[in-house]
Specification:
This protein is of the alpha/beta class and 228 residues long. It has eight helices and six strands, in the order αααββββαβαβααα. Strands 1, 2, 3, 4, 5 and 6 form a six-stranded mixed β-sheet that branches.
Length: 228
């Protein structure tokens, strides 16, 4: 952010001010919804997804992350924060929640799914890994929100890496966020700002896809392309 401000001659406080205000006002969520809708229509899908995939990602926290907003993920041996992403079948971001890394996946999912149901009541099915499993959680999601949670488990006799149906989609989305180097580690004092950086990463990804497709169509329909 500061680097972009210097490059364009804009005071960094001005850039950060817009960054914080847009994140707080929900502007980024609105932009994400519009962009995802356009991409889904281009793929001849329903404009709004009814089935999504959820998955966590633990990342190390820098020294700027306070003790109150960080934790230790014993499974991944990471001290920092955890990102819980909800994506559609194309891996495009629908919603997310950033928590300390020691927060259990099911506890975070209760918060995330409650908000998801309010903003996207059309979603009725979620694929998840074992961290979101459990009969109590599945019963709560079905009875309270009308959302079915299906756990995609790893085969018992599997060894090494196994590509699991549906779950690989959100894993790929997590790798996309890492293309923005700022997201390789969590530097933000506020978890809402950490969420905003993930949202901006997906906004960049989706706008590039829309622009790339438009450019290809323009080249294909140009007179020079016909001559070639």
């Amino acid at each position: 952010m500061a680097g972009a401000a210097r490059h364009f001659g804009i005071p960094w406080r001005t850039v950060f001010g817009y960054f914080a205000r847009w994140a707080k006002a929900g502007v980024l969520r609105h932009i994400l919804d519009r962009l995802r809708r356009r991409l889904r229509i281009r793929q001849r899908r329903c404009p709004w997804p009814v089935r999504v995939i959820i998955g966590p990602q633990s990342v190390k926290g820098a020294e700027t992350v306070s003790k109150a907003t960080r934790g230790y993920d014993a499974n991944k041996h990471i001290n920092g924060r955890k990102r819980h992403l909800l994506v559609d079948q194309d891996g495009l971001l629908v919603d997310l929640l950033v928590t300390p890394a020691d927060v259990q996946d099911r506890d975070a999912a209760r918060i995330l799914l409650t908000r998801l149901h309010t903003e996207h009541p059309e979603i009725v099915l979620i694929w998840a890994d074992n961290g979101y499993g459990g009969e109590e959680f599945a019963t709560w999601a079905q009875s309270t929100l009308g959302i079915t949670v299906k756990v995609v488990s790893r085969p018992k006799d599997a060894k090494g890496f196994v590509l699991l149906p549906k779950r690989w989609v959100v894993e790929r989305s997590n790798s996309w966020t890492m293309r923005a180097r700022r997201n390789a580690r969590d530097y933000e004092r506020f978890m809402s700002h950490a969420e905003a950086h993930i949202q901006w990463a997906f906004i960049t990804l989706m706008t590039r896809r829309l622009t790339r497709r438009k450019r290809r169509n323009e080249v294909a329909s140009s007179p020079l392309a016909a001559v070639a």
